[in-house]
């Protein structure tokens, strides 16, 4: 029997989940839920119904895992606990500072319903967190470094778009090669924000807009750009559409650690991602953890978990025996 | 209370375990066991006793986890099941083809005694296996690539030393940059053994030995060298000691996968290690998993496990709350 997946919300991440489910023979997409008018939502999978979000309760017994695809700012803090009252759930909650509070809320709901919830799944938080944890446990005497990019930052692109005279914009976060090389050398450098990343902006301005003023507002914007070396390119909307419509991302998690009688041996553990599509990759991680949530719940587990709490084998369709034979 | 660690065997790996334990505040080294005369074994930690292997049973209640540091060929197949009758155990069994059989033997012993055993811990098998598994579960539509090096292969160095006229030798396994670049490009290339690695040998020959014959025996040696491009350098024992006495190693596990409606988006997941000391790093992994074995057994878990079966949080000294707050 297949694991029956529900998708809650239907934006970029949800579209990625819809496609990712097709890559898993032991799963099927059962339904999509939206807060819009369902008749206006056309999905890519024939034969799968789209329901209004309020009707989710009616499919309580037909969905094994609900994958929540809303945003961390306003959607997930209420949706994940609500859905955990009825379903095993997965979300990609990524507001790092609010994870403990979100965890507690979801844990309460899931324990009450006897369901399994896994929150903050994706690559950061998610696979990057896992790699920081494994590497730190193995090499306690060491330093962690996380670099992001090269990739599109949605938040920074939005911040540019809010500037007067800006029609459209895309911002790339780029790790500095010299900083990466210094970390990989094992020298355990201290790096400032400016040392680690540069920001490159492609901006479409209104005709006749004051480009100098726009550029100055961007590079001096506190929190977003002021602490970085930032480059601004003004281009046409056509060029932006043609060359900057993708949503690539990625990054590096590096642990530089030491062992030996006097720390004389250096070790570098590096995990990196180079992603053509940030939402499709994030979705792929969510779907793998949906398998884990289903299995854990079958075993009687209830409550909220994170990637730290899930034994890796739960993610794989292979049996323990197969994994030991082929992958160990 | 500290987790009390025992070390069984006292070679390079065991010496690494002895040093690694010092990096963990919640652990203490309790005893070392050897099959040699204990009075002749001098360890690096003052105040820790060295016992004969046969006396392990007497310390049954004083050791929380026994870390087995013998070899996979003849030691571990008998030692790990034996020790699992008395202790929670960790080993680094790395004969891939015999893992299922070893697992079954250890599982039987550990289930009978109610102890927790974790086998095949280290980096390959171990962290490399984990990364192959995670990446494959996330990107089912893709290819795995494993590269080893640059590093010393003990087995290949030994094979050279057995050739007539050879006094000493060190062999380095080196991944081919062009192959790594091709994999990282996302082109999912098919690579032969020769494409992926080269082998570089530093050989000390007897005075007057036929160097041409030795070189020919090396590069044409079936299994070990015949399928690779191999370079042989004849050097003096002094030079070998001065420049090639380290035991560095490392490697790369790369998953090249696709997502999208027609696989139009490529993703690269890469995990790599660059290690100054292969035994000290392997030992660091064993010690982190010793914490997991101890905790799992405290929870009542019994039987044999591998890295696939251990939730990451068990490796860390931090609580679930701390991990969620600081590392997620």
Describe what this molecule looks like in 3D.
Two copies of one chain form a homodimer. The first copy, chain A, has 328 residues and is an alpha/beta fold. In chain A, 34% of the residues lie in helices and 26% in strands. Chain A has helices spanning 12-21, 76-84, 99-113, 127-138, 154-161, 177-184, 193-196, 211-219, 237-243, 278-298, 320-326; strands at residues 3-8, 27-34, 50-52, 65-68, 88-90, 116-118, 142-148, 151-152, 166-175, 197-205, 229-234, 249-259, 265-275, 303-305. In chain A, 50% of the residues are buried. The mean pLDDT of chain A is 97. Chains A and B meet through helix 1, helix 3, helix 4, strand 13 and helix 10 of A and helix 1, helix 3, helix 4, strand 13 and helix 10 of B. Strand 13 of chain A pairs antiparallel with strand 13 of chain B.
